[in-house]
Amino acid sequence: MTTYETIVLGSSPNALTAAAYLARAGQRVLVLESSLHIGGAVTTTTFAGEFQGDTSFTSGRLDDSIVKDLKLQQHGLEVIERNSISSLLPDGRSFTLPSDRTAATEVIGSFSPNDADRYEKFMALVDLASDFLKSAYTMTPQAHPPTAIDAQHMMTLVSKLRGYGNREMTEVMRLLVMSVRDLLEEWFESPQLKGLLGSVAVRGLPHGPFAGATTFNLLHHLAIGDGYFRATAKGGVGSITKALAAAAKSHGAELRTGAGKVTVVITDGVATGVELASGEQISATQIISDYDARYTFHQMVDPPELEPEFNRAVKRIRYNGSVARINLALSGSPEFAGITKEALRGTLTLAPSIAYLEKAFDAAKYGEFSDQPFLEVTVPTESDPTLAPSGKHVMSVWLQYAPYRSNTPGDRLLELTLDRLSQFAPALRSQVLHSQVITPQDYEQQFNLTEGNLYGGDMTLTQAFYLRPVPGFAQYRSPLKQLYLCGAATHPGGGISGLGGRNAVNEIGVRDLALAAKD
């Protein structure tokens, strides 16, 4: 039987980050990916002829420290910034906000002078709050009882908050629990501006902007560098996982795809290895799962190995994926009324008001598909022509709400998307050569994402920090010795930052070694 020091199950950016750090530290590491592609759902694959599209996330960036530590630029990572966001509005009233705040203020001033005066102050506030969140994201949530490491981390965060001053400290803490509707009502007048700025707060959530603490989701996306002004990589977001995989391999890690269903072998309460669908058994000193908590503990581990109370806690985790993805192969560059060629390099958003977003969510409350969807649209080939044949383009669409329980057919999602976008780009339908639709059911069946949730579980305050994935197990470990989690199901949650993987390695390497020494 082959033996490794660590087996990593799954190959998202978190998993590959963990594998690369462990291999760099000298461990013998094996990464097992159940699907055919390294990266799992975070891949860029051919969907028609020479057209390539992202499978799940349309953007994302790794934490800067990970890029630097693992020398990912030497492994082919080339970041492409998306420096604008555009609001798609009828009657040619669409507008584009550049990342430069002075320039954005001028744009806002053309239709809402009072809002222009407040924009930079608003962005400074959410910068402050997301910076605090990012500091918390680099730390392991506090254990119970707290250790000396926990106390040190807490003092660091408290000192940071106090450094803001009393007024700013109060505002930052207040933002975490606010609905984004209430936040934007306090700051702005224009429904169109509020819709655009509020859309990020419901990205990936099965909730609308009226829900409490949706501002937390906005701050989460800003903290991981995927807020208003986003990024991708040359070759698509799959190039991020390719660079991480190359880094891990350069340090000696082994990567295997097509592993199929994997079962964690438990012996006397200790994870000792895995068994593949083929019957092959591989032993390891420790196992790190990149999968969400429910899939890990209810599909890869036999439930009888776990206490009933823990199984109930896992069962209560909320998933209900609500995102569908559509990739379109186009015969030429799309033309949107009021949107410049340069703006096509950014993100186009269909969220004309907060009321529109809430109405888009209404049907999802009852497990039904919304026929008034919230859309985020990118045309990655405007910045990276390698993704399509010469002169042709790829359009990538993020669609909400298509709740898991609605099981809406892909062809209906495609038709609705084309109908809605054709209102702003009349020639779009005639440009479509091929299409790909990926639903929450597809994400579950193809990539083992419970209920098709791309974030490892809802990104809400009730499933964040020391409550993620379940209370008592927020420190990347599980009730079973030598079985750990590192994926989006863990702190700090979903996205492509890689922080979950790096934090897990730090936790295993520092706290658990200290505990082992005591034993």
In a nutshell, what does this entry contain?
The chain is of the alpha/beta class. The protein is built from 17 helices and 18 strands.
Supply the number of helical segments: 17
CATH class of one domain: Alpha Beta
| Beta fraction | 15-25%
CATH architecture grouping of one domain? 3-Layer(bba) Sandwich
Report on the biggest sheet.
7 strands, mixed
Low-confidence stretches: 513-519
User: What is the average of the pLDDT values?
Assistant: 94
Computed over alpha carbons, the radius of gyration is 22 Å
Give the structural class: alpha/beta
Count the strands? 18
Describe this structure in words.
- With 519 residues, the chain is of the alpha/beta class.
- It has a domain at 2-42 and 63-77 and 237-318 and 453-518: FAD/NAD(P)-binding domain (3-Layer(bba) Sandwich), CATH 3.50.50.
- It has 17 helices and 18 strands.
- It has helices at 13-24, 64-69, 101-109, 113-137, 148-163, 166-177, 180-187, 191-199, 214-223, 238-250, 293-300, 308-315, 354-362, 410-422, 428-431, 440-447, 499-518; strands spanning 2-9, 29-32, 44-48, 51-54, 79-82, 84-87, 95-98, 230-233, 254-256, 262-267, 270-276, 281-289, 324-330, 347-350, 374-378, 393-400, 432-438, 483-485.
- Strands 1, 2, 9, 10, 11, 12 and 18 form a seven-stranded mixed β-sheet that branches. Strands 7-6-14-15-16-13-17 form a seven-stranded mixed β-sheet, with helices on both faces.
